[in-house]
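User: Can you help me understand a structure? I only have the sequence.
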Amino acid sequence: MGVGLLTKVKRTRRNFRKFPKVEYCGIFNPRFREKVPVTVCIATLFRWNYAQVGEPPRVGLVAIALSDRMITAGDVQYEPAQLKVAFMSDRALLMIAGDYSTHSQAIHDTHLKMRGIRNPSPYSIAQNYGQSIQAIKRKQAEDIYLAPLGLNSDSFLAEQKEMSADFVSNITSQLQNHQGPDVEALIVGADGNNAHIYLVDSQGSAHCLDDVGFGAIGIGAWHAKSRLMQARYSNSTYYAYSLAVAFAAKKAAEIAPGVGSRTDIHLVFKDKIEAIDPNVDKRIHDLYTEYLGKLSGMGAELIEQLDKDLPTLSKKLMQVDEKNERESGRDAKSDESAIPDESDT
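Assistant: Let's start by predicting it. Here is the structure, written out as tokens:
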């Protein structure tokens, strides 16, 4: 127990030397432990015929929104039995990655800003949500760098003439360089004609992903987007294909640490949001399990066939090694003599 405690102390000292405090004008610039945004949220667009039976085709865009349930609150990560989706209107939802408390405040502030507006556009929601994120981070920076000096943003600006230039420059640099918690959001909503996807990044900037056709956030985003790009996904596809590829992307993202195994799926039409039918949800899970089994079996068959074909396909590999009087390239899995002698190394 004493050795373990000593080890922890040594590690702490090494970390302190590696990340020393930085002081400007008597104020320490705090260094926070990096927080990785767990979770994965995915949205895809596909074509849908909105026409009634007997009417000419009226093709528009529909979105599929998928999310796990893993959330981060401070230093705690867990997967509660509740949706990780905020319904911003009758036809727009929001999915989050990163610090849960920051998102909770931003959602509350965005609802207050848009109170009284019936079915705001997805772009308007994305803009207001991004502004809420920016406001929260500005307040956090003010609490860290200005409040200890008895200042706030207004008093700092008003009293700058009475402060030294270096002090003002250093405080301004700290405020501007404040990153705050790493947060992202996907706004998936419709404007009455088509569904749209907007990404709000950690700086609060909104990005339209309609032409790309998909978006993903969270620690599993890289895995999900890689799967979608490998499938050459575009917004010109149809429902079954979109659902299959998006679901496969979510399952691929589960390899990343911090991605939950539960998957909630919603469809965003031009005028409403629907949870996926339970029968469809069960079917896509069953088909994916069946697909993995077949894929594993095919892989084993291909490896076995390749193992049989290699001796005849590559004569060079089968040449006799005169030095050790055995075939160079011969499979070492059954040859104990192929194990290298440690004394030789």
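Now, to help you interpret it: Residues 1-34 have pLDDT under 50 and may be disordered. The helical segments are 2-18, 100-113, 122-146, 153-158, 165-177, 221-230, 239-253, 278-313. Let me know which part you'd like to focus on.
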